[in-house]
Amino acid sequence: MIIIMDEKASPDQIQSVVERLLDNGFDVHRSTGATQVVLGVVGDTHNVDLRDYEVMDGVHEAIRITDPVKLVSRTFKPENSIVKVGKVEFGGNKIAMVAGPCSVESRQQIKDIAAFVKKTGTHLLRGGAYKPRSSPYSFQGLGEEGLKYMREAADENGLAVVSEVMDRMDIIPALKYVDMIQVGARNMQNFALLKELGKLNKPILLKRGMSATLKELLQAAEYIMAGGNHDVVLCERGIRTFENYTRNTLDISAIPILKKLTHLPVISDPSHGTGIRDKVAPMARASVAAGADGLIIEVHYDPEKAMSDGAQTLYYEQYEQMLSELKIIATAVNRTL
Amino acid sequence: MIIIMDEKASPDQIQSVVERLLDNGFDVHRSTGATQVVLGVVGDTHNVDLRDYEVMDGVHEAIRITDPVKLVSRTFKPENSIVKVGKVEFGGNKIAMVAGPCSVESRQQIKDIAAFVKKTGTHLLRGGAYKPRSSPYSFQGLGEEGLKYMREAADENGLAVVSEVMDRMDIIPALKYVDMIQVGARNMQNFALLKELGKLNKPILLKRGMSATLKELLQAAEYIMAGGNHDVVLCERGIRTFENYTRNTLDISAIPILKKLTHLPVISDPSHGTGIRDKVAPMARASVAAGADGLIIEVHYDPEKAMSDGAQTLYYEQYEQMLSELKIIATAVNRTL
Amino acid sequence: MIIIMDEKASPDQIQSVVERLLDNGFDVHRSTGATQVVLGVVGDTHNVDLRDYEVMDGVHEAIRITDPVKLVSRTFKPENSIVKVGKVEFGGNKIAMVAGPCSVESRQQIKDIAAFVKKTGTHLLRGGAYKPRSSPYSFQGLGEEGLKYMREAADENGLAVVSEVMDRMDIIPALKYVDMIQVGARNMQNFALLKELGKLNKPILLKRGMSATLKELLQAAEYIMAGGNHDVVLCERGIRTFENYTRNTLDISAIPILKKLTHLPVISDPSHGTGIRDKVAPMARASVAAGADGLIIEVHYDPEKAMSDGAQTLYYEQYEQMLSELKIIATAVNRTL
Amino acid sequence: MIIIMDEKASPDQIQSVVERLLDNGFDVHRSTGATQVVLGVVGDTHNVDLRDYEVMDGVHEAIRITDPVKLVSRTFKPENSIVKVGKVEFGGNKIAMVAGPCSVESRQQIKDIAAFVKKTGTHLLRGGAYKPRSSPYSFQGLGEEGLKYMREAADENGLAVVSEVMDRMDIIPALKYVDMIQVGARNMQNFALLKELGKLNKPILLKRGMSATLKELLQAAEYIMAGGNHDVVLCERGIRTFENYTRNTLDISAIPILKKLTHLPVISDPSHGTGIRDKVAPMARASVAAGADGLIIEVHYDPEKAMSDGAQTLYYEQYEQMLSELKIIATAVNRTL
Predict the structure, then answer these.
(1) Which of B42-46, B302-306, C84-88, C323-327 has the lowest mean pLDDT?
(2) Residue of A100, A240, B259, D301 with fewest CB within 10 Å of its CB?
(3) Considering the domain B2-63 in this protein, what is its CATH number?
(4) Residue numbers in C near D311 (CB within 8 A)
(5) What is the pTM of this model?
(6) How far is CA C71 from CA B64, C79, C223, in A?
(7) Quick one: average pLDDT of A137-164?
């Protein structure tokens, strides 16, 4: 940690800061420049709240120089991590595809879609059983019944399954049915949930919060990894901006940035990231072009009849058309699909 | 719901939209203007996803004309709701004060602070037992032990207690100790939690999410009220903006807007809303001047030693000074303190 | 325009709104639904401020159903517009490339870079003569001298030139030297400038403001076109978000959205959009994959010595490498480069 | 400037950074900590672009430790600056009031309003002659004619006049008629304009840009002061956020923050800051409660007939009622009105 004093900081003010640092068990190196004093703080400052010092009289700024994350950081693990779910590898040369409906709606619906997903060469099935909805009066998902249907449909087609849990209480039922547990955007900072997931031996798909910074996303992943579970895949799914044409603004630049900061796989969700069906394929292409390790896509045989998020759900033929475009783009970034 | 067609929408496109509406059980009134066709949709459209129609060819915009919320809306209950917690009334003429430390740190700490809070005429004690922290390596609170200490301290001083729960699993222990349950900003859209709180007979303090719109805050409150619990107090606590001098930007205008949209009490949290000690009093004054029904303030006998959020915590004398300023401002808005 | 009344709006409130509308020369069609009254307003409402009605008692919402823009809208001109600048066509099948330094620094510098740009098959040279800098103490550009050097360098290499003007007073000198005038992000709503540019017979490159919505960008273009100048190219260059790893967040989704809303060409500026050299190529690839009609890229023989924006400027070999990747991606979207 | 190297930075990477710093004429102090190397840079780094170093391999972060502003900073001028315009003092104990219509609409309109303004004890008249409007088809103001009417109306009532210029070309006509020149939010970073205003001997009212940080606002003020004109008043007028109930979100916390960072007077514009008439008074009260040095308010004898911004314009009686509330609040912050 470095503390930069104001240009006009008085000797007393500087002394107060130094004393507080010493009190808290740190060593202090004082450096007097042409215009101001800079204090270098020696010791483990990971848990220091910078603001504690910034509100002191005469302090210009406190800066943390050590990374707030350890386990997720590429500094400490330079090579890419690969997370395996069934036949799918996230983080390898091949781009990982995940597809399925927004919600599991019935045994038959998920069966049909699973068969289609399989046919396209996609090996991981998505589908929501517990649906987070803004209004209490909207469809809230089939719950455990939905998970059961999805498991059956996946098993019939040799697919693996990823589905979202809403809080700690949903974990036990989910463990029976799913191969990968999704943490939704609204739960990215549900720390009680993250800690619990850290204890599991099950891959986690962690979505970025709607207005979360990348640093906060990495800290959320650190929560899971700190518990011992290192199989975490990060997912960019759009952030809130002023723009209203799209539901969210898919932050494509998050992909190359995250790939630099962390060894964890990074995928993109252009369905939620745009909220508009005809924007899904362009943004899927852009994601792969920017270096995404995979995509998660909503697809349905009849999006107009979907019980949730139909407007952002692809028709079967659109999904297949998109895959053929992605194959070309993958070659431009030395990947396969 | 109203559907506005594009100026160039073809008769076929219009027909498709009409048919889909009829299919879904609605009646349709078609109105042909000078430039475009507008479809009035008759029936209960509460659960329609507007985007389902907006992605159809030839549709310019779909607009919901009925309110997404019912129970929270002032339209349906014009008079102010009053929520009672111990001796405190939120939503009455008297401005409700809540004060205490960020975290319960020890039996002695919360005792001392409770005695001070009582002395100032404040009757509701705040304090965190489960702390949501961005880093897994930071102090995470004393848990149930903390709630117990807080209850003791409150009882000794005739105070009521408000404290935050992190998810559904924390509710049972909290019920034993607290008089009002707080939902933190990160949990504003934890719908599983909100539904559970809706079943309780215990007042809820619902904080606005960091990047939530006011409509989303009202929908979150609707979740609780739809379950049968009508004792909800809303709390503005700062939103994320580009500005970095403050931790958040306290949205003072949310206060008069919420007061118009809902009958529920609205309070302000200038401690989290600014994150900086010397900005707490100015923003507390501003909140009352703008019509807040109450304030929740972090106070500690030694903020420099606080285990969390010390930088935004008031010294005792600052809290007392602030109260004396607020008394004057209250008169300007025909309130008492 | 449609005015939706509150569910509890009184007959008097409705009457007041109707009378105001009639007073203002509109016809009103009143439609009484199950829950509320909706007023359809007939007449030219382009210049009505919706808020004038929204603040009236009993009004729930006022909605404009006609597009605020005309000339830029694809509704009124379905086919793509092509804007020609020298040998370059924006909006055709071939992706248009623009490259050059951030600032013109000297006669020799721009000569060297122009020769390189030419060699890569790029035909339009960028370079700033008037530099908008946040600090008054930073390098402010060479002014007209810079434009002269750039013209010379371009002529020697058979290139066309695009450069930014800062306000109306810069137009006259710029006309002598440049083939396309750039409006910077900070000037997107400099309406006096836009009006003046509307009178010219010179293509305009209009950059999106840092926190502008796409609707505002289209309205800015409408200002230019309303004056008679229809040669406008739109440029996405990054918006301000909470994320600080990048200077801005390049909004790739703006590309397919704009392409749907307007017939004007849409290009992307990944240099300003990211502010970081090694993020430029990934975001350039993503832009083309999402359907951009062109790219504007900062390139310099020695970015480390560049007088401005060196951190986001490509080395020569990086630009060439990027072009070869883009060629592959262009085929995936049926374009050429 | 301080440069913090990555924990894993190689000796070669560190050497490259050191060499570049020396090349650029700086001295370097190298400090090797437990985990990483920190380079202290000695010399005038005001014009260094931090990103130039941040993109170098092995660099974690570059931090400017000197203030980017000088003349506006309270560090260098601790006592409040007072800016006088006619009988009005901005920055003194008395809260400065500015009032008038959004636009000058006619000779008679501005006369009537000036007389009212005078009657309330307000001494500075606002009114727009050049109007920045999002749509080219909206009323654009009366231009110089409007300034003339406003001058006449002010002279008849012994008032001073503040009005906005749109760019450098409007300055000459404005100088004849106005006592204070306003820079609008959209022009906060119109650097050509700011430089020109810096040469004048006329007070400037500088509005914060719609998505500008406070640092950027201070840098804009520095532009004016660097030219020699020290009579600058800053104005908070609302920032763009996700919230749509209000036109903008008035950032009340900007007031106490700016008052700490700069000696310049700081006023608030609750009319533009909310865009809604019945929110103006609550936010005016909040502004004064938070420490504003003044307010600028839109007022009109018939807001419903106003040619622009009627929805945010107060009726005469509302303005008078607001003044009486503000008088009480002023006493709570030891001010007068």
Answers:
(1) B42-46
(2) D301
(3) 3.30.70.1140
(4) 49, 51-52, 54-55
(5) 0.95
(6) 29, 13, 9
(7) 95
